[in-house]
Amino acid sequence: MRIDGVLIEDTFAEAFGMKATRVIVTAHDATWARHAGVAATGCATSVIGCGCEAGIERDLAPHETPDGRPGVALLFFAVSTKELAKQLVMRIGQCVLTAPTTAAYGGIAEGEALPMGKSLRYFGDGYQIAKLIDGRRYWRIPVMDGEFLCEESAAMIKAVGGGNFLIVAEDIGAALAAGSAAIAAMRAVEGVIMPFPGGVVRSGSKVGAKYKGMSASTNDAYCPSLRGRVRSDLAAGENCVLEIVIDGLGAPQVERATGVGIRAACAVPGVRRICAGNYGGKLGQFHFHLRKLLGEGA
Amino acid sequence: MSLTLTAVAAPPGRVSLAGLTPDRLSGLTCAQIERLPLAWGRQTLALAELFRVAGTPGDTLVFEGPDRRFCALGAGMQSGTCIVEGDAGDLLAQGMAGGQLQVRGSAGRFAASAMAGGELRIEGDCGDQLGAPMPWLGAGMAGGRVIVRGDAGARCGDRMRRGEIYIGGAAGDFCATRMVAGTIAVAGACGAHPAYAMRRGTLLLLSAPYAPGATFVPTVPCLDAYLGLLWRQWARQFAPGSAFGDLARRALAGALPVQRWMGDLASDGRGEVLAFGA
To answer: How far apart (Å, rounded) are the C-alpha atoms in residues A245 and A240?
Structure first.
């Protein structure tokens, strides 16, 4: 299968079940909402070292937020309920509570409740106020610019983490352009984040390493600088590889984002082929077959 | 399915209608309902002596031609809809936990006492001690929503713990006294000593001027997010033309000046009074 002359490999991305939540952060203006959102989702590229994977799903106009102020929708993914609960309180507490004028709300209607304001209220030192509005409980915590309003909890749902595809290109220029084009297109898909910087990752990994204690190490088969030295998966002319990792609130969202991203990447000159990372299909419960999701045979 | 109980005789005294709720009657036949005992002091009366029963027991229960001597209407209601075509006596919706109770007329004292959930709407006025505890109880209303279109009597929301009370008209003296938590909004005038001995909770005075006592202190109203949520809830909940709906829409169209006091410092001191009047 080819799209715009780019080979789509007959392979699949292997993804995993995760736990996820959405948090709506609002502020006096869009700039401060984004500052808080960027900080809260910072250093959250991989559950391996960050505890969770997180990102800004999209900016929200005032009419889309609970309190009518501009905001951002944030998505957080972790491997367990316990870890997600820990990360949520820590990140909202350190990065949203601290940011001027912000408020935080759960962004998913139903699911297991993860404490948010329920834990953070103690910062109010007894001066916090609980308010029940439309059946949802909020905490008003006095802070130096006024009040930090935080919903008692955020709902958690089962989600998908680790969807991916690799852009194999002639050079770094083409790979970066394709990665940027893919991310720009994928940002329009609701319910997904691409957690790496700019949405793109260069350090694709394989399972294991020669060193003790390393659970993952560089994906040498896709390192152009090792072509000829190791059993490489790169052919002549394939001199740069970038990966896009996708976490989504469900498999359909990951599938849609993957398709949109691949089509955008294929439109960029210099892209040779698209493939995906998997572990033989034995580890992850979700398999996203590239050709199938791109409509081959449809 | 709807069941109608039409009063056919004046009650001999104060008769309790506690337990005559859609959820409890829905499993009974009309004949069984006619035989239900109604408490009148230490005596009982068969329901059929005072009411004609018509229709089919189900989600909706309608009282027609009620009398102020019928008390505890809708008491203990869990679900469904109950409509009172006229006035209701004391203890309306006492201990109500769910469903909708609509009174087309006015209500007596101690309405919504110990109410824990559901919604009570009173088209007319309401007597004293709305949402307040019975004298032998320590805490008042524990949840749910009460909307009074007219005026409310004295001690509205006394010792209230949770829930929302909306007074479309004026509130009497000692409104929100000894309040523990929850929200009370008054669209019209407010009597003397509002929020006296308030511990926590919020009293919103939409048009009445507030003259704080010595134990209330003015604070800076930093309420963008809270009022943003509140106005949106009100705009959804109240139709245009109602005091609350109109105020919410006005606030959403442009910032509304608000003053805030905290108190009562003679008590816990964590309550707040928000005044929107000039």
So the answer is: 17
Does residue B129 lie within any of the structural domains?
yes
Is B251 part of a structural domain of the chain? no
Does residue A298 register a pLDDT over 60?
no
Phi then psi for residue B6, to 5 deg, are: -105, 125
Put simply, the answer to whether B233 touches A149 (Cβ < 8 Å) is: no
Residues of chain B found within 8 Å of residue A68, distances taken between Cβ atoms: 228, 231-232, 252
Whether B144 maps to a domain, the answer reads: yes
The nearest alpha carbon in chain A to B251 belongs to A68
β B43-46/B259-263 pair status: unpaired
The number of residues making up chain A comes to 298
Q: Residue B232 falls within a domain, yes or no?
A: no
Interchain CB distance below 8 Å, B220 and A146: yes
Residue B25 lies in domain: 2-221+258-275
Q: Where are the domains of chain A?
A: 2-14+159-293, 19-157
CB atoms within 10 A of CB A282: 7
Of B182, B132, B180, B138, the C-alpha closest to B155 is B132
Fold of A2-14+159-293: Alpha-Beta Plaits (3.30.70)
Q: Are B160 and B236 in contact (CB under 8 A)?
A: no
Q: Between the CA of residue A108 and those of A18, A75, A114, A135, B190, what are the distances in Å?
A: 16, 10, 11, 15, 40
Number of A–B residue contacts, CB under 8 Å = 54
How many whole angstroms separate alpha carbon B91 and alpha carbon B75? 7
pTM of the full structure: 0.92
**Cα–Cα distance, A112 to A80 (Å, whole number):** 12
Q: How many domains does chain B have?
A: 1
- HSE-CB at B132 with a 13 A cutoff on CA atoms is 24
Could you report the per-residue pLDDT of A160-199, keeping only the tens digit for each?
A: 999 999 999 999 999 999 999 999 999 999 999 999 999 9
C-alpha distances in Å from residue A272, one per residue of A7, A174, B19: 7, 10, 76
The nearest alpha carbon in chain A to B270 belongs to A127
Which CATH code fits A19-157? 3.30.70.520
Cα–Cα dist B49/B45, whole Å: 7
- Residue at token pair 């009562």: B264
Q: Do domains A2-14+159-293 and A19-157 have the same CATH topology?
A: yes
Nearest to A69 among B220, B228, B233 (CB): B228
Q: B21 vs chain A: nearest CA distance in angstroms?
A: 24
pLDDT band at A40 (very low <50, low <70, confident <90, very high): very high
CATH number of the domain residue B71 falls in: 2.160.20
Contact partners, residue A297, CB within 8 Å, separation at least 6: none
